[in-house]
Design goal:
By secondary structure, the chain is mainly alpha-helical. 70% of the residues lie in helices and 3% in strands. The protein folds into three domains: 10-137, no CATH class; 142-282, no CATH class; 301-331.
Amino acid sequence: MQTLTRPVDSKSRTVLIAGSIALLVVVVLAYGSTFAWLVRFWYEVQDYVYGFLVIPFAVLLLWDRREMIKDAEFKGNLWGLPFLAIAAAMRGYSAYEFLQVAEALSLIPLLLGLVILVGGWKALQWSWPGIAFLTFMVPLPGRYADLLSRQLQQIGTHVSVYTLQTLGVRAVAEGNVIVLSNARLGVVEACSGIRMLMLFFAACIGAALIIRRDLFTRILIALSAIPIAIVANVTRITVTAILYETVSQELGDKVFHDLAGWFMMPMAIGILWLETALFAKLFAAPERETPLAFGTLGEEIPRDRESRFVHGREDAAAVHKETVRGKEDTA
């Protein structure tokens, strides 16, 4: 498809920014009821309270990548129209089926389409991480949450039993219940880690997008959300079982349902920090640290190429100076 606009010079950049802000305001007004539902959901459901931080972090990602568009020439592209059509179809489906989640997710293709339509591919290369990260502000649909919750229940139960037996604590798994010597500890859906898993995914993917590492290291950090969630949840269950056996069931219940939930996130952040420190030792850092980008936008000239380019330009200037001096001497 052809471009819609000519390259944007410095004089018209202010107009483009003002128009983009006005367009963003229109989008917010059009999705006013959806944003109201999201805010109410974040406030009422404690496990999704991190949703309040998603939009500010997406803005931070855009600001962190601002050098990519400092001197870029934007060219709007009609390829944004298919994304707008997808967003319209999702909103229509959500209105027909009364699915708030689908309507909230339709904001992602809408923003992608508007970015391509107004700024073209270079604007998309700059903005796609921030737009994609907005996915985490939408709650996971119930059917997928239940499926993943059952899997995490089973994994948490069996790994916790193995850990307890290794530590010398008598424990046997009966379904999703851990049978101890003096009590039974149920790994219920609310404590399976499913909602914490979404928080861990947001933290790990956010870290992978913002750190200056190679693509392979970023992928490893993003995928580490699942093992981090399992380790944090198994630690929670194991500590509770030990308290059941050594102190009292009342204290174990208080730790399991109240205190442990507050410690899981700091524990996960600590594991993530140790992971990034380990990767820094195992994998060499890139020669020049740049934000994650696909294509050539934001690509910097390597030092050896830059050196050859600069020296070659200086040599050419010296030859030109000698030639002019020779002509002057001849004259």
